[in-house]
């Protein structure tokens, strides 16, 4: 197998991103077992601090179990608006510094530095990029530099938190060899258990299994796992592209049939992501409403609209879609809304009922929200008793 020695791929990963943002907002939380996720027993962990992880906590763990394992943990519901804001800050810094990067999640990035070794040196450049991100955002970040995406990602996970590592070309296989097989991306629970039952506990053992045997055992996935175990990955860094949608959803602590409550939640969510839409200077041309009943049946309905970013236009459509969807008179578990068909756009008179008053109203509302936060000003019909607003 051939590995391109000229490739230099860095993987950057924000350390426990949601938790780091919360600690940045409230430094008192630093060093404490902190959980970001649903506060009720039906919620799950979205992220947890390294102090909490010492008790066995991890993302996607049910909150009820997390509280049992770590009763002293501090639970915060989280704020996706803030997380998105900081994610965009990091994205902007990286976009300003590097020619090609891939945003693989809200807090992970791949950077293709191939060719830059002739100028600054890839190691020095990546170290400086880490310092810049930390200095300008206040958030900790870890990274690893290698010849491909696979090895750089695995290496980053090995040096977190706040670490950095370079895997020189030609040492990919020896770096991976002593690691447990579960460290290889693509090895899930079932495949991992199967390999361990076969006595394959380390990446070295996996890499030494004949390709044909792995193919017979796992099919096409067997060949891919053999390549990964040998540190081979030729997947390119996909240039970052603008998002295709903006969405949010809410799972309720208790299933409900209260229409006043459901409409209030839908209004609140729609208003929030409509503000996010306008903050990104975008307009939407399609609205989708999602509804999940207590028996887990999930239904969606969408409608194309003239491109708009106006709450009163979007809300009218969203409520109409909800009324069409809610036809079973069953308890509801979840409501969600999504905007798609996004285009760049800003305030346009014909999108605001042709009135200057409406334009000035939205400008004033968004100005207040930008200054004091999106929850500072809300529609009365989006407020429910006991919500804290």
From TrEMBL:
Keyword Metal-binding tagged: yes
InterPro entries linked: DNA/RNA_pol_sf, DNA_pol_Y-fam_lit_finger_sf, DNA_pol_Y-fam_little_finger, DNA_polymerase-Y, DNApol_IV, PolY_HhH_motif, Rev_trsase/Diguanyl_cyclase, UmuC
Annotated ranges, domain UmuC: 9-188
Cellular component terms per the entry's GO annotation: cytosol
Source domain of life: Bacteria
Binding site for Mg(2+): 13, 107
Residues under site feature: Substrate discrimination: 18
Co-factor requirement: Mg(2+)
Xref: Pfam families: IMS, IMS_C, IMS_HHH
Coiled-coil spans in chain: none
Compartment(s) where it occurs, according to its Swiss-Prot or TrEMBL record: Cytoplasm
Active-site residue list: 108
Membership in a protein family: Belongs to the DNA polymerase type-Y family.
Assembly information from the UniProt record: Monomer.
Biological role: Poorly processive, error-prone DNA polymerase involved in untargeted mutagenesis. Copies undamaged DNA at stalled replication forks, which arise in vivo from mismatched or misaligned primer ends. These misaligned primers can be extended by PolIV. Exhibits no 3'-5' exonuclease (proofreading) activity. May be involved in translesional synthesis, in conjunction with the beta clamp from PolIII.
NCBIfam families: PRK02406.1
Designated name of the protein: DNA polymerase IV
Organism expressing this protein natively: Flavihumibacter solisilvae
